Amino acid sequence: xxxxDPNRFDWALVRSFLAVLDAGSLMGAARRLNAQQPTLSRxxxxxxxxxxxxxxxxxxxxxxxxxxxxxxxxxxRQMEAxxxxxxxxxxxxxxxETGTVRITTSEVAATWxxxxxxxxxQAQEPxxxxxxxxxxxxxxxxxxxxxxxxxxxxxxxxxxxxxxxxEIPIIAAxxxxxxxxxxxxxxxxxxxxxRLIGFDRDDGILKGFAQMGMPLTREHFALRTDAxxxxxxxxxxxxxxxxxxxxxxxxxxGVLALLPQLAxxxxxxxxxxxxxxxASRLVRRVYDFLAEAIPxxxx
Length: 299
What we know:
alpha/beta
């Protein structure tokens, strides 16, 4: 008997081999597995070719196992038991209703958007533990550091399943204390005369105004930070006029939306999950909850 290459060995053939061994005939094995007799005959022939030795002798009424077949029978049954254990474990994992699901999203969404929604989820599903990863890195879902991602860009990788949940309105906003001191801008052009909060090294706001025909410069922004949470807190503290996701305002008492005529492009909101784990009942439950709960929270 030759030694099969483990990298080329077809483990699926063992099931057919054991069925024929136990039934004593191809016909009996076919009935047991609800399979076609020619298929089982081909499987046995393929396994014999891989092992380099005959496993059965054909008789008029069935088949008789060779010494080689009897020699590998115990190992084959151990493989079968292992396969059944693996299958049961996978089924248990897929059908589990308790466990941990790891969610990744941006720092802003992790601070202002998801917490009240996750509180609702915990009330509905006390058996599900949630790990929330606040990160602006787009690769942590691909690196399997999370099960589900809520992102403001569409994942392009084929291994991910993405669903667009809606768009996030971006608005100009300021605290009423700031407006009481410096006045309320009536037109977008008035912004140049106000204390604006912008980014430091990120030029996204500058590019956005340039596209709208308002070429503001870095010097127009009296406060600058690339820290997204600090940016929002500066707006909430009355430091100036900033440009934020509209849903943040419900968490910032006294902050008012300004200049509804200012056409700032919205951000898309995407829900992404690995293709192979969406079959998990646990992950699917959290995924479906977020898919239903996030869109109204964006309004």
